[in-house]
Design a protein that fits this description.
Elements (H helix, E strand, L loop, with lengths): L3 E6 L6 H13 L2 E7 L10 H11 L6 E6 L3 H7 L4 E6 L2 H17 L4 E6 L9 H9 L10 H13 L8 H4 L1
Parallel strand pairs: 1-2, 1-4, 2-3, 4-5
Bound molecules: 4'-phosphopantetheine.
4'-phosphopantetheine binds next to strand 1 and helix 4.
């Protein structure tokens, strides 16, 4: 049977930081379900099917990582898929506060489920989906921070909304 872990988040969009955490979790647990929350309390650029599609493509070469969307309580979804572990990535002290509060609340709701936080790799410790959105919106480069197809999808989305600035001179030479 083995241990199933879920790695929940908004993934709007998935970044290399997320992929790194998902892969490292997949090296520890038997299977990892990357769980895309469908209604986070923030304004989203991508729909739930789009977020799921991008995350699925980003981890497609990892046989024990699958991607699902969920609604409602995280612990409800964890129980539904019989996950024993919730995985979260930790970047900085600011993450620690938020993550501790969520972990304690989730434990209160579902004491049988353990929360495991993985510290992000140094390369991605400054990375966040919202910063990526801002950089692409302002015409900056995103190589190595998100998969290429995510950067393209973001440019496409933001261009349609009229939000992508022209590529700056220093980038094109
Ligand atoms: O990527 P994010 O936005 O930091 O992910 C936050 C997420 C989706 C993990 C969190 O909002 C969540 O678990 N939402 C599901 C609803 C829920 O269970 N809320 C109570 C959390 S203590």
């Amino acid at each position: 049977m083995g241990i199933t872990a879920i790695y929940p988040g908004s993934f709007d969009p998935v970044t290399m930081g997320h992929v790194d955490i998902a892969r490292r979790a997949a090296a520890i647990f038997d299977r990892v379900i990357l769980a895309v929350y469908d209604t986070p309390a923030k304004s989203l650029v991508f729909t739930t099917p789009e977020r799921v599609a991008m995350a699925t493509r980003a981890v497609s070469d990892a046989p024990n990582i699958s991607v699902r969307s969920f609604s409602g309580l995280l612990v409800g979804f964890a129980r539904e898929v019989e996950a024993k572990v919730i995985v979260r990535g930790l970047r900085a002290v600011s993450d620690f506060e938020v993550e501790t509060q969520m972990a304690l609340m989730n434990r209160k709701l579902a004491p049988e489920i353990e929360v495991v936080c993985l510290v992000t790799s140094l390369n991605y410790s400054f990375l966040s989906a919202s910063l990526i959105k801002e950089i692409i919106k302002l015409g900056g480069p995103s190589e190595g921070l998100v998969p290429d197809f995510v950067a393209e999808a973001l440019q496409h989305k933001l261009a349609r909304k009229g939000e992508v600035a022209p590529v700056p001179r220093w980038l094109t030479g």
